[in-house]
Every structure is written in C-alpha cells, then in structure tokens.
Amino acid sequence: NIDYAPTFLDAAGVKVPSDIQGRSLLPLLQGKKPADWRKSLYYHYYEYPAEHSVCRHYGIRTKRYTLIHFYNDIDSWELYDLKKDPSQLHNIYGEKGTEKLTERLKKELKELQVQYNDPIRNQY
Predict the structure, then answer these.
(1) How far apart are CA 2 and CA 42, in angstroms?
(2) pTM of the entire structure?
(3) Do both 4 and 21 map to the same domain?
(4) Do residues 54 and 95 share a domain?
C-alpha cells in the first residue's frame, strides 16, 4: 500500500513529494517497467497483540524469497523460497546451502532499513 498515494498523485498529474516511500504504479499499469524499479520490498509489522495476533517482525520480499525476523517477544528468523513454497509453509532458514542467500538477503534488508530510516535497524 506504500505505492497507492504516489500512484493517485501521479494519475492526477500532481508531483509526488520526495519524502514518500512508495512509487507510482502507473508505468507498470501501462506495461512499462522502469529500469530502476525495486528488486525487493521492505516491510515492518509493529502491532502486537492486534487483530491478526502476529508477533512484531520486519522482513524483505523479493520475487523469489521472503526473509522475516521476529523480534521483541521472540527472536526468530524465517526464510521461504516462493518458487518452491508459494504458501510459505516450509521455513528453510538455517538449512544447509542457504547461507549465502541468507547473508545476501540480510544485507539487502539492512540497506532498506537504512534507506527508510527504520529506527529498529540499530536495535536488532
């Protein structure tokens, strides 16, 4: 939903403020993919307990993988291969052969936390 506001502003012909995190989806809706379009998406779920009863966590999602870190109440990581496991039922975090992938995704996750100035980046 971070892309909704920029999309609506763009559709209305209004300049999108530089401090908005999302990007307009209009180019994608017109069949064009900008060369600098993001390769991953960062999210942070703060509310617990709440409607969904999901513990606090942040993560990154690419076209193929999801990496999640649960924090505060628990300290746990999850990694899913969306090509092999689109329902995200089999956590492969820590499995043999995922070390380099995990390292790469954690690096990208940290870079996005810095980019979005997420205060949690210095705590965990």
Answers:
(1) 10
(2) 0.80
(3) yes
(4) yes
74 with 115, same domain: the answer is yes
Is the same domain home to 53 and 77? yes
Closest CA to 22 of 115, 123, 124, 119: 115
Domain limits for position 68: 38-122
**Angle subtended at Cα 6 by Cα 5 and Cα 9, rounded to the nearest 5 degrees:** 85
Mean pLDDT across 33-57: 81
Are 25 and 58 part of one and the same domain?
Answer: no
**Sign of the dihedral through C-alpha 57, 45, 105, 124:** negative
Residue 70, both tokens: 């649960």
The mean pLDDT of 38-56, rounded to a whole number, is: 79
Residues shown for the chain? 124
Would you list the DSSP string of 55-90? --EEEEEESSEEEEEE-SS--EEEEEETTT-TT--S
Number of domains in the chain: 2
